[in-house]
Design brief:
Number of strands: 5
Structural class: alpha+beta
Helix content: 55-70%
Order of helices and strands: HHEEEEHEHHHH
Distance between the termini: 68 Å
Largest sheet: 5 strands, mixed
Number of helices: 7
Length: 185
Amino acid sequence: MKDLFNDGLKTVLEVAIKVACKRDPATLRRLARLDGKVIEVRMTAPSLQLFVLPVSDGLEFDNQHPLAADCCIEGGASDFLEVLLDEQKTFSSGTRLSGDTQLAIDLKNCLQKLDIDWEGLLADGIGDLAAHQFAEIFRAGRDYARQSTDALLDDVDDYLHEEVRLLPPEAELQQFYDQVDQLRL
C-alpha cells in the first residue's frame, strides 16, 4: 500500500512539474543541460529514498536506479523545503551533500527560477476573465499579507526595544561596539 501511494505521488509530481515546465521554456533549457544526470535524494524525516532524473521536458522520479548517482542529497523534508524556498540558503543548513555538489546547486537553481504563468494555466481551465479576477484577488491578498507582516515585525521590534526594554536601542549597541573597538585598540 505504501509503495502504491509513493508511486501515485511520484506520478502526480512528475506530471505537475512537466506541465509547469512547459510554460517556462527557460527552465526547460536549464533542465536539458542536466539531462542524463542522476540525483539521489535521501529524506530522513519522513524516511524516503528517491532518484531525481532531469530530462528535457521536466523531472522524472524513481525508487531505484541502475546507475550510481552523480550526487546525493540527504536531510529532512523541512530542510529540503527551507533550502528550496529561500534563494539565500545553501545545502549546508541541515542537509548533507556528496558527489557532484554543483549538480545539486544547478537543480536547486532550476527549481527556484521556475516561472509559472499561473494566470495562463488557470485560464486554460476556467477562462481568461475568471482567471484574471482570481489572479487580482491573489495579488491583493499577497500584498496585504506582506504589508501586515512588515507592520507586525516593526511593532514587535518597537515593543522589545521601547516598551519592555528587553533589547537595547540601536544607538546604545553602536556605542557599546565602539567602546569595545577602542578597548581592543
